[in-house]
Design goal:
Distance between the termini: 24 Å
Structural class: alpha+beta
CATH architecture: Sandwich
CATH topology: Jelly Rolls
Strand content: 25-35%
Shape: globular
CATH superfamily: Jelly Rolls
Number of strands: 13
Number of helices: 4
């Protein structure tokens, strides 16, 4: 992958295809929630055809310390997550980062301590309108605002975190934990001394 190529339609670079393969492979495993596997199957089917690849620089920087700290820790582990992180690190220079607005119960440091990036989807490394796949990064001692999901979404946690779904008890999400949230579900996310890195994906109704 090289910078400056602009928007083009072509075969996917290996890191991008490898990332899609790893994410969908984990979500299609027998240990994944049924709805997460269902969505992964749909995503894998739709991404058989590549979109427009946007190989340009980032628009904002993530919390760099948290990014590098998390990459290094997960890459040093064994299994599927380590392989996934290798591809994510290679794609890293081409990610455009953005931030969410503050909301209910967000930590005071929220604005400066989190970032999102879209890998597949509008404004992503691969521009398309039928699928979204991205990452969320949170620095230590950050809490994401409580919010209601607009669409069905699957989260694959690459590092430890604490999540709360539908106002239930807070759950400990270990690396590799998969959480499915339905449209309309209330969702909350927080972390303590370790940063959070999670992959998320969803289906869009509009086809490109």
């Amino acid at each position: 992958m090289r910078r400056g190529d602009g928007v083009r339609r072509a075969e996917r670079p290996e890191p991008l295809q490898g990332l899609i393969d790893r994410v969908c492979g984990i979500l299609l495993s027998s240990s994944a929630p049924v709805m997460a596997s269902y969505m992964a199957g749909q995503i894998y089917s739709r991404t058989a055809r590549s979109g427009r690849q946007r190989l340009e620089g980032e628009t904002a920087s993530p919390p760099i310390d948290a990014w590098q700290r998390t990459l290094s820790k997960i890459k040093g582990s064994d299994g599927e997550l380590a392989g996934l992180m290798t591809y994510l690190e290679q794609i890293g220079p081409y990610l455009s980062w953005y931030r969410s607005r503050v909301g209910p119960f967000a930590s005071v440091n929220f604005e400066k301590s989190h970032a999102h990036s879209t890998i597949l989807g509008p404004g992503g490394v691969e521009e398309r309108s039928d699928v979204q796949l991205g990452v969320t990064l949170m620095a230590p001692y950050c809490r994401f605002p409580d919010h209601f999901e607009k669409q069905r979404r699957v989260f694959l946690f690459l590092s430890a975190a604490e999540a709360c779904l539908r106002d239930r008890e807070w759950m400990r999400a270990e690396p590799g934990t998969i959480v499915f949230s339905d449209a309309g579900d209330k969702f909350a996310l927080r972390c303590t001394s370790e940063p959070v890195l999670a992959v998320w994906c969803q289906l869009d109704d509009r086809r490109r």
